[in-house]
């Protein structure tokens, strides 16, 4: 791979990175985002509902990062 191709690949990867952690309404409330009050009113209930649904689906408490009882068996990796 040439230097130019490597740089292009790095630029492409930088464009597709995602934030893997999201504190839900806490991010909005703590002004980590510039959401308008109307946006908060619309998003916070949906975020809370989604977090609860995913917690039940994966039997994992994403907020406290602990496994819950359920179908999935979680183990910590290093």
From TrEMBL:
GO MF assignments: protein kinase inhibitor activity
Coiled-coil ranges from the UniProt annotation: none
Pfam families membership: CDI
InterPro entries: CDI_dom, CDI_dom_sf
Cyclin-dependent kinase inhibitor domain location: 48-77
Record keywords: Protein kinase inhibitor
Stored Gene3D superfamilies: p27
Record family assignment: Belongs to the CDI family.
UniProt-recorded name of the protein: Cyclin-dependent kinase inhibitor domain-containing protein
Biological source species: Hypothenemus hampei (Coffee berry borer)
Upper lineage: Eukaryota, Metazoa, Ecdysozoa, Arthropoda, Hexapoda
């Amino acid at each position: 791979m040439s230097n130019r191709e490597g740089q292009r690949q790095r630029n492409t990867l930088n464009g597709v990175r995602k934030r893997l952690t999201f504190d839900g309404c806490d991010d909005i409330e703590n002004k980590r985002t510039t959401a308008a009050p109307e946006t908060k009113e619309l998003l916070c209930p949906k975020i809370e509902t989604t977090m609860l649904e995913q917690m039940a689906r994966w039997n994992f408490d994403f907020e406290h990062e602990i496994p819950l009882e359920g179908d999935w068996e979680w183990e910590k990796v290093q």
